[in-house]
Fold each of these.
Amino acid sequence: MHNPYNDDVDAMAEIGHKKYLSFSCNGCHGGGGGGGMCPPLTNDAWVYGADDDTVFRLIALGTDELKKQGYKRVRTEVVVGPMPPFGTIIKTSDDLWKVIAFIRTKNPSSMEKVSTPAQTPGE
Ligand code: HEC
């Protein structure tokens, strides 16, 4: 899976940020994604990988289901805990890609890795 907004994530920054706040991601990750009681989204450590496919799955499925599908933590963040599933709260994949585009604007170096999964369970 790939983010259709990768060519211009900056154009989605504001709308993606609004959605990020509307889904209460900020309660755990901070308003700008810098972390808080949960891992920062702005640093180079990506627990399961920085690529689009993995990040989409983590947010939609949550930690428990992602691990059931064979993913393992490949990096340890400052905080280790389960991410809840948002697949039923975020109604469309389009909305989720917009949120991910916002995260990319907060973590520009991760753009280099959107197509390189750190792991590909089941393949
Ligand atoms: C209840 C707290 C909580 C909420 C709400 C939450 N997260 Fe998370 N998130 C976590 C935790 C804890 C982790 C670490 C998961 C792990 O280690 O398995 C995480 C991990 C992540 C990661 C991977 C970070 C990394 O460094 O690899 C992303 C991306 C992410 N969350 C995005 C979101 C988005 C987008 C939302 C809103 C739709 C959201 N989170 C809502 C707790 C939360």
Note: Helices lie at 13-22, 26-29, 52-68, 93-106.
Amino acid sequence: MKHPLGQLRPLDTADGSLSLHSEQFDEAFHSSAGALQESQAKFVLPAELGRFRQASELKLLDVCFGLGYNSASVMHALPQTTPPRIVWWGLEVDPRPLKWALGQQPFCDLWPGVVLQRFEQLHRSGSWSDGGGQGTMLWGDARQNLKALPSSYQPDLILMDAFSPGHCPQLWSEEFLGALASRLAPGGRLLTYCRAAAVRSSLRRAGLTLRSLLPATRHRIEWSSGTLAVKPHTTDPLAMEGPGWTVLSEMEEEHLNTRASVPYRDPESVDEAGMIHQRREREQQSCGLESTSAWQRRWLMNKNPQHDSNVT
Ligand SMILES: C[S@@+](CC[C@H](N)C(=O)[O-])C[C@H]1O[C@@H](n2cnc3c(N)ncnc32)[C@H](O)[C@@H]1O
């Protein structure tokens, strides 16, 4: 049987946590700086889980569950006293990463028993249920399975962790991001490591307020480590700054006016990556927007000629 991810190769990351590399997507599941560190800096910290101390429920949607670091980190970091009941859904095409992770002692050592029991249940039956809540995994293409979630389900948090737009544009399309945004509860947050202009522009057009995740390390020259996108809440407006995030800089705002901001389009939610890229390249050629390399020269090259900016 051909697996959607092709062959999976184990990887060590710099904080000692384990990850995988997908042959088919030609991409690692996590930053080489650390799988655990990434889930904490880019998902747990900006989620501000303390907000849910008095809440009766936390609705959590994990898009691209993989080994499960993001959900496990959130579950582990929830307030211990009067934690909210979790109503969890997961979207993931390949069950092998979870199976592999559960067989690795260093991975299991990271999490409390309650999290591991939920993951074991997910692996065995695709769902979990205990005194702290309940969860269901929808195995298969997230584009189709998102439509299968109950229409009343409005997540407070969406953990969006697809492979990069260059390798997996299917899950960064205007349509898919719009569908995620429309599900968010008022005040709900979508978190992602992705800072691409096309993705940010789609999220903004979908009505979300954007914030930039601060670079995770001080040692690397970076301008953002991801995006926090929030569904506006009339009575509780989003602050300009919070833990691990701030407003988009002038440079980041200008990035959204360049050709890089042309969205990935997938009108029927069935197209393959190549088709989506071709469609976008055609639109970029005729869009009349500033080239992204001109923006890059203006903001990045002059300040730091060695900057290796992988700007998309
Ligand atoms: C960057 S990894 C996610 C890492 C994960 N969050 C973790 O903590 O290990 C991307 C994941 O997206 C999944 N994926 C790729 N295409 C998908 C699709 N069309 N629908 C659902 N999941 C998909 C892959 O199987 C992979 O597990």
Note: The longest strand covers residues 85-92.
Amino acid sequence: MTDTAPVVIVGGGHNGLVCAAYLARAGRRVIVLEAADQVGGAAVTREFAPGFRVSSGAHLLYALDPVVVRDLKLASHGLGFARSGLCTVSLGAGEPLVLNGTEVLAGEVSAADRAAFGEYVARQRRFGALLARQRGRIPARLGAGFSVVRLFALRANNRTTENPAPMLLDLLRLGRADVRELLRTGTMPIFDLLDDRLANPQLKGALALDGVLGAKLGPRSGQSFFTSLQRAGAYALPRGGMGTVTGALAVAARAAGADIRVSSPVARFAVRGDRVAGVVLESGEEIAASAVVSNADPKTTFLQLLGARHLDAEFARRLLNFRSLGCAAKLHLALDALPDFRGVPADRVGERLIVAPDLAYVESAFNPAKYREFSPAPVLEITIPSLHDPGLAPRGKHVLSAVVQYAPYDLAAGWESGRHALEKATLDVLARYAPAIRERVIAAQLLTPVDLEREFRITGGHWHHGELALDQYMMLRPVPGAARYAAPIGGLFLCGAGSHPGGGVMGSAGRNAARVVLGEVRG
Ligand SMILES: Cc1cc2nc3c(=O)[nH]c(=O)nc-3n(C[C@H](O)[C@H](O)[C@H](O)COP(=O)(O)OP(=O)(O)OC[C@H]3O[C@@H](n4cnc5c(N)ncnc54)[C@H](O)[C@@H]3O)c2cc1C
């Protein structure tokens, strides 16, 4: 295969588009093949009832890489915001708690808890910033010949992506007290940490949510504090929903010369000798490629599109053990008017509303998931984006979007029967805080993890393409042997959420992968 053949990107999710834009800007010929009839993957805006549009998967932006926004000039390609800096409003039995990320703005919280909250979030932000700095780096290679002397010699030669020196320097910059605290808390259940620092049950419940959302973890699970560090950012609503982000990325990629084709599902990779040399579409068309970059999840990429026969047995075993069963569902409601949320002032209803009233509630909601059952009283993260972005719904009407946790992919009774019961349970919980909500509902759509798998072609319907835990993080993501974007077979690269730094609408995996494909960094 010659280098004049295009780079083919399988999947037009946000990471595939970011990768395409960077490669095209560097002068590569790029073809993006997206199976769905629109680009965006799990970051799209769709109509779910006549006149009602919603962000179908991701609904809040909190981690988009500012380097990607700047490099790809997303603002001039259509990215705008309906609202930035959303507060979190925790719904409970009494007065709602309002948090703005650094302070308690409203709620019956003692002075001691307000101070402890300030310290907790400040430290969480410092740790979160440390992780955020790693997002734009290719995970270090920990191989033979690793030594501290070599590590700093390489740093001096500016070969920083070959080794963990930058990460270690970041750690040292944290200072002794924070490093000790990070080591102590990094694998801790968020439950213990919050219980140790705070007294207010509602405050603890609200903070615990960040440690479990999108994950198959409860507050008492190890690593739930680590998970919370991934969300230490400010929440924003893109104008027009998440589809505006991926729409702007597609414009940027096309402006740089990328050819983006929708409704083009890839059936398999074409392997010639010991290399991936192109792709074969479901239509039968074959496209030769100088490199194939997969935005699909790791199991789809290796087990379905490549085929286990091209993999080393140990690598295939690791992939099979990559934990990738989703545990969150998504509910969309078309509302004929805005319902009252008890105790929530009108100017706060458009914030990020959560139902996680205390630690016990969240842990109890998780318990059934361990036994392949959904929660009868789920934890919720709710947005009503039409309050800031009226174009999403007909005049005077609204859309409500809620992440519903916990809903295990492998529900014992199956989702055919489970779907209606979970929808009812979710509406029951919503009605505790917005008693008239049922009368306001014109149409509802519940996407279970099985629906998410089908809609977005994500094996297991997991929003990170796989659990984001320490054993599946950085040089271990998705599995050793493919953690630096290059696959263990020539000509194939990964660029999706199953790679470092994981899921969430960031674009970092796409940008990092492009650097490896371009040879700026060894994969
Ligand atoms: C319910 C839910 C809620 C979420 N909430 C948030 C949130 O609020 N904020 C946030 O930041 N993140 C959120 N996320 C996570 C976020 O949406 C994902 O992590 C992110 O979109 C992953 O992007 P990606 O480009 O890596 O992969 P994807 O978006 O999964 O894109 C992969 C693309 O590859 C395509 N593809 C797969 N196989 C093939 C094939 N054979 N041929 C051609 N194309 C193929 C797919 O169709 C898809 O378009 C949420 C996710 C879900 C599901």
Note: The mean pLDDT is 94.
Amino acid sequence: MRYGSLQLKNNLVAAPLAGISNRAYRVLCKRYGAGLTYVEMLKVESFLHHNRKMMTLKYYREDERPVGIQFAGNNPQWLAEACKMAEDEGYDTVDLNMGCPVPKIGKCGAGSALMAYPEKAGKCFDAMVNAVKIPVTVKIRAGVNENCLNFIEIGRMAQEAGMVAITIHPRTRAQSFKGVADHSRTGELKAAVDIPVIASGDVKEPEDAVKILRETGCDGVMLGRGVWGRPWLFREIDELRRYGRVITPTPDATERLGVLRDHFALLLEGFDARHACQVVRRYATWYVRDIPGSAQYRARMTQVESREEFHEVLDEITDHYESIVGVPEHEIIGRRAPALAVTF
Ligand SMILES: Cc1cc2nc3c(=O)[nH]c(=O)nc-3n(C[C@H](O)[C@H](O)[C@H](O)COP(=O)(O)O)c2cc1C
């Protein structure tokens, strides 16, 4: 897939995810086949301020390329300045967020709130595109609510302004994350514009991606929550499309725990140990949720305070898993809490 001058190795994009898509997350997505990743959404004024938190959020390394940045804002001049800075800082592409439904962003008239103001959005598009040479894209919702489904109008404006691709998360702002993403709207957008359209929403299994690509004719898919604790979803989609089935076996618990260890090690490259522990608490349970009897370890993982403690809990889960491999499910129930057993 091409984003203007930027040739991507495939059409699988890792979604920008506030609070999630830090470098560690992106590296894992890329390792398993993402063609493009994004740093977390940044409020344009915070980016221009360059404060310390921003330095952490926007941190990326050369070996991640191609890497995109995404801004939330509604001030054309600020957005243009931010695009210029992003270009100077080496990002490969820049996206405008018109999808975020959270009040903190909406009350500034940014994110999905901007869907209600097409004229203002158009000025932002023009300012961003005219400010830089790197490809500029936009991520939109289906509209403000069911009475204002203006994704085609906004999509055409983006194309007119010179944006090189549009990602659509086809829920409305009013829906937030409720209901389902209606990808018939992705198909309608694809039919209405000539630039690439990327579908975002509810890709949980490889089959979901293949179905959306086939039924909507869209150019690519963006993966969000489906990848949490399962970065190999990129590989599975790729294999399903190439060979008609997923070839590589889904990682078993031992391999998943290995990926979690890697995830933590990557976090330690960018954060001090305390911060890395705070962040890994968010991710850790995703990787072990399917291991029978892991509830007690999951609970502990959400409280780890140090690198040693993290590895201790992981070692215990590994031992637990190795002790139950091949044991029927009903027998595992009785083994769930060895710590409690010693009290008898
Ligand atoms: C925790 C969380 C954070 C998100 N942050 C962003 C963001 O920073 N920028 C953005 O464009 N979309 C963001 N989204 C929306 C996702 O990119 C995606 O469009 C949406 O979750 C639907 O796709 P999914 O079903 O694959 O998750 C976020 C979603 C979640 C759940």
Note: Residues 333-344 have pLDDT under 50 and may be disordered.
